[in-house]
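S2.1 Query sequence (2Fe-2S iron-sulfur cluster binding domain-containing protein)
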Amino acid sequence: MAAFSVNGEHYDLTVDTRTTLLDLLREQLILTGTHKGCDHGQCGACTILVNGQRILSCLSLAAMHEGDSITTIEGLSAANGTLHPVQAAFIDHDGFQCGYCTSGQICSAVGMLRELAAGNPSYITADLSAHPEAVTEELHERMSGNLCRCSAYVGISVALIELARTKVPA
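Output structure tokens follow.
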């Protein structure tokens, strides 16, 4: 038995200990916005937020998330149906083509912007004692785990730079 919240709704489910969080979301809860890309944690298409932190749902067992708050792409829109600022920026800057990776890219961007705002360093942060700057290289490094086969990176990059510099709440 596992109890957790997904997109603000509480669930008490019987979960096979071998079931990944991705499969639970897609197959049991019918939240199909999170995509199964490589199923090996290499592409980022399955990125979701758990307790506000981004994770690869294909690499995480559902049973490990007892009591957690899970947010998928479906849960990012506001209650009144308006787009999350990251979703709107992706649309404004053509940050997608086929759309397969888009849900993972957007969830990853939300988590990444939170990490940046909190001052968490990345692999390339030069001064670990200073707050990281929202420069292009920093944002690219932080999003490097999310791949786009269509190469919509230019639009994604412009959207992320705008969001980071305007300090849009993620």
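The longest strand covers residues 2-6. The domain at 2-75 is CATH 3.10.20.30 (Ubiquitin-like (UB roll)).
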